[in-house]
Amino acid sequence: MMDAAKFTGILAAGNSGTTGGANYYDLGYYPKLGDGTSMSLDSIQTGTYGSSVAMLLDNSSVASNDSRTGVLHLNGPRQVVAGSAGTIGNSVGHSVFRSGGVTHVLTRDALAQALIDPSFSTEGLCDYEEWTLDLRMLSIGEPFAQGAFGKLYRGTYIGEDVAIKLLERPENDPKRAQFMEQQFAQEVMMLASLKHPNIVRFIGACRKPMVWCIVTEYAKGGSVRQFLSRRQNRSAPLNIAVRQALDVARGMAYIHGLGCIHRDLKSDNLLICADRSIKIADFGVARIEVHPEGMTPETGTYRWMAPEMIQRRPYTQKVDVYSFGIVLWELITGMVPFQNMTAVQAAFAVVNKGARPIIPSDCPPSLGVIMTQCWDANPDVRPPFGEVVKMLEVVQTELATSVRRARFRWCISHPMTSD
Fold this sequence. Notes:
Strand order of the largest sheet: 5-8-9-10-12-11
Radius of gyration: 22 Å
Keywords: ATP-binding, Kinase, Nucleotide-binding, Phosphoprotein, Serine/threonine-protein kinase, Transferase
Family: Belongs to the protein kinase superfamily. TKL Ser/Thr protein kinase family. RAF subfamily.
Largest sheet: 6 strands, antiparallel
CATH architecture of the largest domain: 2-Layer Sandwich
CATH superfamily of the largest domain: Phosphorylase Kinase, domain 1
Number of strands: 16
Strand content: 15-25%
Structural class: alpha+beta
Helix content: 25-40%
Order of helices and strands: EEEEEEEHEEEHEEHHEEEEHHHHH
Catalytic activity: L-seryl-[protein] + ATP = O-phospho-L-seryl-[protein] + ADP + H(+); L-threonyl-[protein] + ATP = O-phospho-L-threonyl-[protein] + ADP + H(+)
GO molecular function, one term: ATP binding
CATH class of the largest domain: Alpha Beta
CATH topology of the largest domain: Phosphorylase Kinase, domain 1
Number of domains: 2
Number of helices: 9
């Protein structure tokens, strides 16, 4: 089990217990800031503070119909090198906080300015000091996405391309500031503890009085959702789809093996790296399992969300298995789940009508079985990710065998001649 006690204020150890045989650490609910190409973006559930706010890099994400969607269009490359003097852009602004959310009246570079401002010292990361960024080595490029409380930038760290997430500390809302700091600490704890080929690699983090920064590797291929959108929602070749699904299942098997729940598994949070491998990202809402009755469902995205989360019922790691079933369907079909419905309509249909995406008639039966088991309404029927990996490996072997047989039949029917 992961050590979650390194950040004060995160762990409610007094509430630990067992439910359904599973041990959990309840980290409480923190408002989520999504992220983009390397830390994917989707709706930010703000709980009692207001309706959700959607952020996305392009129009491929699908958020609920009450979301506000923002896209940044850049006018050319500019860079900010940490440690340099002066302002970034032309001015430094401020934020205006209102009920229901926050309105930024900053210039788009003000967050970066707050990070590199030498007049404010860099704060440590408690027991994660080795992950504290050296801001002299960080170069911040243009922001490529933003939400109510932060922005995403592409940049470099010690010469490596990275994704930089900057969160603005609310000045006039201490309760929200506390929530966001806990969320920041939780994400650092998760990223620093997860080391797997199919998990986005953590570079480092730091805190300043008015801004928090998290840096991860940059995924050049964008998200799986963006990949499918670029293909105009046409599915990838079956062998590629299965290979991608295996990457996700192996990463999730590792996460669940540590006693964690991701809770927001979807194609927007699956990143394609330069070697074409898939990496799981966005752990701002991930949990360390302790008691499901203490876990709230205001995270995740309805199209991928298990019915027990939608209904605010107790849940376990099996909510991730459900989401994986939807992701597998996306990979096989190339389409957005429930694309003819709003997110709220999809949630209603899943819970009240048992609706699920339609499996194509030409889908290999073995893949159809995996999907239907994963998204079963009964969490106990859903297989653990270790079994999902084995089933997908069988499918992968079957596909490779059928390709070899087809090639052999073609060679027999088209013999080579001296001509």
